[in-house]
Write a structure and sequence with these properties.
Elements (H helix, E strand, L loop, with lengths): L22 H54 L8 H4 L2 E5 L2 E9 L7 H4 L4 E10 L5 E9 L6 H5 L2 E4 L2 E9 L6 E2 L11 E8 L11 E8 L7 H4 L53
Antiparallel strand pairs: 1-2, 2-3, 3-4, 4-5, 6-7, 6-8, 8-9
Length: 283
């Protein structure tokens, strides 16, 4: 018996695969994107933070140089006449990391704010630490002509030399012991040498140490002018003569001195020390 031929059924048509992502693929893609974004943000933040630290360090160094330059220029121009302690007193206070300084000086034209005072070269300068707007301390400079009352604008709006000052320390060379001392009580004398320490900025966010520290030593070239060079031995003009007159030479062409009973004049007028005390700037 012959069996009928086997009929094969047609194959079903192939399924079309969907073009959408599966949930697992989406989660993996999002995780990779998050990792890339975190890496980019970390790099960007590191660059910004490094740039800010570098700019702060450069600003602190520049502020320190400007402040030290102003202190050195003024101290190298300091002057004092012992007959006028009211105007020429050398006032210095130092306590811990805080100090203040005030003295008279013949300042150069390049000194800060000299244009405000014109030809008034003799001025009293004062350096002090005061609270700043961000609760930090700032080093300020005030100036006033020597024989004039301080300007109200100068008192209310001083020149800010440096901000965020951590240390401002003054030390003076003791002429008797040769050691550095933190107090100068001889207001009618100029110290021969000073050591200034200035620290600015923060080393880091959690440190109280300054970021920029500079120490400099200044040798003051000036000396206190005694009354005999300022007014003359007679207390009036130069050489005991009335003000505005030069001393006369002793008779017979001899030079006077304390040993022969003469007033003590040579044939040329006495010259005041350091170029002060007579002429245009006589006091």
């Amino acid at each position: 018996m012959q069996l009928p031929p086997f009929e094969t059924l047609p194959a079903p048509p192939p399924r079309r695969r969907s073009a959408a992502f599966t949930l697992l693929e989406v989660m993996v893609a999002l995780a990779l994107l998050g990792i890339i974004m975190v890496a980019i943000y970390s790099s960007w933040y590191a660059i910004i933070k490094g740039s800010k630290v570098a700019l702060d360090a450069a600003a602190a160094a520049q502020r320190t140089r400007v402040s030290m330059h102003a202190l050195q220029d003024s101290l190298l121009s300091a002057c004092m006449f012992s007959s006028n302690p009211k105007y020429y007193a050398f006032l210095a206070e130092s306590e811990g990391d805080t100090a203040s300084l005030s003295f008279a000086a013949r300042l150069p034209k390049s000194f800060p704010r000299s244009g405000k005072f014109g030809d008034l070269e003799f001025r009293r300068v004062s350096f002090s630490l005061e609270p700043g707007p961000d609760r930090d301390r700032q080093l300020v400079l005030r100036q006033s002509p020597l024989f004039m009352d301080p300007d109200k604008d100068e008192m209310l709006h001083p020149l800010v030399l440096a901000r965020n000052v951590k240390d401002f320390i003054l030390e003076f060379l003791d002429p008797r012991t040769g050691e550095w001392i933190s107090e100068w009580q001889s207001t009618n004398q100029l110290p021969k040498m000073m050591r200034i320490t200035l620290g600015l900025g923060n080393l880091d966010k959690f440190s109280t140490k300054p970021q920029e520290v500079r120490v400099t030593t200044v040798a003051l070239p000036s000396q206190t002018v005694s009354p005999q060079y300022q007014f003359g031995p007679g207390g009036g003009g130069l050489g005991g003569q009335p003000p505005g007159q030069l001393p006369q030479a002793p008779p017979n062409g001899t030079q006077g001195n304390p040993n022969n009973g003469q007033p003590g004049f040579n044939q040329t007028p006495l010259q005041p020390a350091n170029g002060f005390g007579g002429g245009k700037f006589g006091r």
